[in-house]
Amino acid sequence: MKKNLKKGFTLTELVVVIVIIGILASVLIPTLTSYITRSRKSAAEQEATGRLQEFMAYVLEWNNEDWFEINEYVFIFLNYFIYLVIYLLSIILC
Q1: Phi, psi at residue 82, to the nearest 5°?
Q2: pTM for the full model?
Q3: What are the backbone angles phi and psi of residue 23, rounded to the nearest 5°?
Q4: CB 70 within 8 A of CB 59
Q5: Which residues have a Cβ under 8 Å from the Cβ of 59 and sit 6 or more positions away?
Q6: Cβ distance 69 to 23 under 8 Å?
Q7: Quick one: angle between helices 11-63 and 72-93, nearest 10?
Q8: Model confidence pLDDT, tens digit, residues 15-67
Q9: Given its phi and psi angles, is residue 3 left (phi above 0), alpha (psi -120 to 50 degrees) or beta?
Q10: How far, in Å, CA of 71 to CA of 88, rounded?
Q11: How far apart are the C-alpha atoms of 28 and 18, rounded to whole Å?
């Protein structure tokens, strides 16, 4: 009596698994790409915000000296200008 032992996968089973993996990859790759883009944009914004805070601290330190006077309107302008630059850089880089 011969026994029919199955010791491996058939070609059909392997093709089905490859097709399923391909479908999952086609769904996951765009999602992961958008996550990577958002994380890079967030990192760029955080870096630029840190630079803005450093600049403001520098200006405030030198504002105590008499030879460098700056008023609040210049601060407001610089604040909006730097945030605009941050926004534009995050769009361009990402």
Answers
A1: -70, -40
A2: 0.49
A3: -65, -45
A4: yes
A5: 70, 75, 78
A6: no
A7: 160
A8: 999 999 999 999 998 888 888 888 888 888 888 788 878 877 777 776 655 54
A9: beta
A10: 26
A11: 15
Report the C-alpha gap between 58 and 63 in whole angstroms.
8
SS3 string of the chain?
CCCCCCCCCCHHHHHHHHHHHHHHHHHHHHHHHHHHHHHHHHHHHHHHHHHHHHHHHHHHHHHCCCCCCCCHHHHHHHHHHHHHHHHHHHHHHC
The position carrying tokens 């200006």 is 59
Supply the pLDDT for residue 21: 94
Identity of residue 14: L
